[in-house]
Each structure stands twice: as structure tokens, then as C-alpha cells.
Input
Amino acid sequence: MFSYMSYMLTAVAALLVTCDALCKCPGIPGLFGIPGLPTRDGLKGQSHLSGLPGSLYTEVCNILDLKRRLSRLEGVLALNGKIIEVGEKILASNGKEVDFPSALESCEEAGGTLATPTNEEENKAVLGIVKQYNRYAYLGIKESETSGQFMYMNGIPLNYTKWHPHEPNGKGSEKCVEMYTDGTWNDRRCNLYRLTICEF
Ligand code: GLC
Ligand code: CA
Output
């Protein structure tokens, strides 16, 4: 089973690499449909892709097309300030200030979770949105049963923190975490109205 899987993965990976260079897909610049460039039919017989089933060819073109369309959409959303991309994460806010459970719920309903900075770069990206709205935001962090110990929503201990000096100081009475407008963190009660920032 494993060797079959790795064979298939290798085959598909090889196909994608070769296809990137040679396969000419309709509507994709540098690929099918550009005047002066060879068509897929024109490549038949000369390319080592000639033996590939047409359906596989089509599927690879469909994947390349989807990737291109997704990155165009991301470009438009980023240009319009609707999202911020940081590493593999996408951050976005609905501009609403609600309590922690409601903020978490609206992020999860949208297929994400509350913004959870795990390094300086991500913290700065979240801060960008906090500054844009000039509102404190709840983060996707909560206090564990052991007071003073904070963790991610999945229960894993934090591997990056940006506590404001003398925080956290709630000793079990402040189980949520807010980001201040300077990017530092404060443990805080969960029933306040804070900006919702999600990550996807
Ligand atoms: C102050 C404290 C902060 C605390 C808050 C609660 O701002 O500095 O630690 O969470 O009061 O009201
Ligand atoms: Ca505090």
C-alpha cells in the first residue's frame, strides 16, 4: 500500500513538473491558446508526455487553472485590504467587536479560527489589523486549568508569547488574551467586546 502510494505521488509530482514546462493548457499564458506557441496536439509525438492519457492531461491543466484563479482572487483581496497573507496563513477581520465565544464561533463558521500569532512576523500581521481598526482584539489563546499557563485552542502550550510587561497577571480570573494596539498581549476576561480577527 505504502509503495503504491509513493509510486503514485512520484508519478503525479513528475507529471506536474514536466507539465509546468511542456503541457499547454487552454487559457493559461505560456500554455495552450497563446498564438505562436505549440498546441498540445502539436506537441504530440515529440514530447515525452505524448503517452499520457488525455484525461490526466486535462486534470493537470484544471489544477493549474484553479491555482492561477485562486492566486488572482488572493491578489484582489490583498490589494483591497480585505486579507493579509503571512506565510501560509490568511488573516481577515469582519470589523465586529464581540465577546470571546462569539468571535471564535464566527471564525469557525467561516472555516477558520481566531488569529493566533505563533511568531513575530504573524504577531506584526495581526497588529496591522488591530491598528487598522484601532481596537483591541481577542487572540486564539486561552488559559489552562493551571492558572498562569496559556495554551492554543487545541491545548498545546504556547511556543511564542508577546506579553505586555507584568502580564499575565489575572491568576485564573482572566482566561482570554487580548492584543493591545502596540502588539503586546494582556490576559483579560472573556466577556468583553473585542475586535474579531480570524486566520485561515
Ligand atoms: C489593567 C491591568 C491588566 C488587567 C486589566 C483588567 O489594565 O494592567 O493586567 O487585565 O486591568 O481590568
Ligand atoms: Ca491582565
